Amino acid sequence: MIRFVDVHKSYRAGGRDIPALQPFSLDIADGEVFGIIGLSGAGKSTLIRLINLLERPSGGQVFVDDVEMTALAEPALRAQRRRIGMIFQHFNLLASQTVAENVAFPIRLAGERRAAVVRPRVEELLARVGLADHADKYPSQLSGGQKQRVGIARALANRPSILLCDEATSALDPQTTASVLALLAEINRELKLTIVLITHEMDVVRRVCDRVAVLDGGAIVERGSVADVFLHPQHATTKRFVNEALPEEAVGAHVPYAQVPGRLLRLSFRGDATMTPALGRVARETGIDFNILAGRIDRIKDLPYGQLTLAMQGDRVDAALAALRQAGIEIEELPR
Amino acid sequence: MNLLQRLFPNIDDWGEIGRACVDTLLMLGGSMALTVAIGLPLGVLLYLTAPNQLRPMPKLYAVTSLLVNILRSVPFIILMIVLMPVTYVLVGTKLGIRGAIPPLVIGAAPFFARLVETALREVQQGVIEASQAMGASLWQIVRHVLLPEARGGIFAGMTVTAIALVGYTAMGGAIGSGGLGDLAYRYGYLSYKSDYMLVTVVLLIVLVQLLQMIGDRIVARFGRH
Fold first, then answer.
1. Tell me, what's the ipTM?
2. Into how many domains does chain A fold?
């Protein structure tokens, strides 16, 4: 459990305090994957560093597993940091050490130097991230995705309860991003690890996160379950992020709605509703006609969802909408 | 008359040249070891205490930095003369190999310290942040992150320093520290025996080449992978 209580942060520059994060409170539950999304400069790197106190808050308290991090003296803080793994956008591996030495590094830092203990643990970690054959290579001999896997193995070395991901996939190509995200999801599932990740890509949030907070100009402007935020974004920044995550056809940006007759509606299905042929059934029963303008069917983490933009015509549109709501479909009427 | 005598008519004692070589190497080896022993920690101190670094201490940094700059700005030959009383207190003589080592070290250690500081600054900030996130103490960061990551630059700095020291030992020869510089100065310059000058210069060139080669090998072996 990570808990921020009235935390704020400002930097001192040129004799003035420049606010980086507005006062906020936030709870992140054990075992969840929590995403923080924002543009660069929104304060997300600062926020994630407040958890292991790489950045000290200007005010407020930070608790990790009921330990008040902000009250710890240096040695206790170091001990606590060993229980929080962290991975980075640019991997930050030791270039002078092999893959195995990099993974062993945090174990050695924690005082365990016996090869009989360290070596099997390193092997187990490298096997988990799929790099068992690369133990004796140097980081410069690896691809970006492999380097991040080493970073993940290293972050897991001391069996942390929390993993912080600082733009962990931002330097990777889409395929590598997908495989690293799949690995993170697997770790979250199997090790019951809490994951906090920051990103500027909504797609990353959609694929792995349970909950999300949207950061804009140093303030949390929206937060909630990923499905809620993704399907019904409220804040302008959130909407921009969501639209970026969707292909143009799904947003329907290029369709000239003005010429389409009927009422413009956006239907959102999630979970079980995605699996039932509700739209066809309701159309038959009420005799309405519909014209699909844009649509997308995908998954939010493990939850299947669909979103359709359509124009509906007929005498009994209201009855049809009521029947669709009955079937668990969320409906938004779009302005023309 | 053999070939050597015909080429170098003034050189009647090659053993003297050999002894001068050994003296130069001893001065070099002794001063280099002490230069590293003093300059490395000094360089780490400069790095750590600089503004915005791991342990910023503006006053200590300013004083150390000034001292280093002062020692670096005095030409070695003058430094050597100025330091003579200090040298006498430290090693009991102003002459010979022993007399040469204190000024050599005092001249070269600040130079090497700056090279160490520069090499440490090349270490990626992110790697240091990662080790802090892993709960590393300051000493662990220095010992296990900064020094290993910067070792290529540090070995390159050692090479540069060793070569600078060869030059310093030759200058030291002018004021009685012995070695190849002394030979070149006494016979080559004061007595116009240019064959002495030629031989010592060639030997110094060979020595510098060897140091550079060995240094490059070490950097290639232990530098970045």
1. 0.86
2. 2
